């Protein structure tokens, strides 16, 4: 599989992606707008509806819209669900590797993604190597 690149909007946090009512939990208006925008961006990159079905590696750079403190993991739910909704892959359970990086602050925010086939990973045999990871 050839690597796939998608640029899209900065996703909403998981806290604003859902709205809870007495009838249940639903995707918020903001969440639906993000999903629609992400689907358009997938179409522009010719990835809408390709339905990848192999193990995947996803690398994400989130470019926040301002300097507020953010937990990067809170933005992944909306992003992964939007790409599932756009049928880029069969399901986000296919993601076996996920890297999230904080990019520089840019006006309006953005997200850049690289989707590749996950070919496994190699763990070092020497357990001391883990002592050098920050």
Summarize, please.
The chain is an alpha+beta fold and 134 residues long.
Descriptive labels:
single chain, 134 residues, 28% strand, four-stranded mixed beta sheet, alpha+beta, two-stranded antiparallel sheet, 60s Ribosomal Protein L30, Chain: A
Descriptive account of the structure:
The protein is an alpha+beta fold and 134 residues long. The chain has a single domain, classed as Holliday junction resolvase RusA (60s Ribosomal Protein L30, Chain: A), CATH 3.30.1330.70. It is built from 3 helices and 6 strands, in the order βαββαβαββ. It has a 4-stranded mixed β-sheet. Helix 3 links the parallel strand 4 and strand 5. Helix 2 packs across helix 3. The radius of gyration is 16 Å and the shape is globular.
């Amino acid at each position: 599989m050839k690597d796939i690149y998608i640029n899209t909007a900065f996703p909403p946090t998981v806290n604003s992606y859902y709205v809870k009512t007495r009838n249940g939990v639903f995707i918020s208006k903001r969440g639906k707008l993000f999903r629609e925008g992400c689907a358009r961006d997938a179409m522009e990159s010719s990835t809408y509806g390709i339905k990848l079905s192999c193990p995947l590696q996803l690398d994400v750079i989130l470019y926040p819209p301002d300097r507020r403190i953010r937990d990067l993991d809170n933005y992944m739910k909306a992003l992964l669900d939007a790409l599932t909704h756009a049928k880029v892959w069969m399901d986000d359970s296919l993601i076996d590797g996920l890297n999230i990086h904080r990019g520089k602050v840019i006006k309006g925010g953005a997200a850049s993604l690289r989707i590749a086939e996950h070919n496994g990973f190699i763990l070092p045999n020497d357990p001391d190597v883990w002592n050098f990871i920050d």
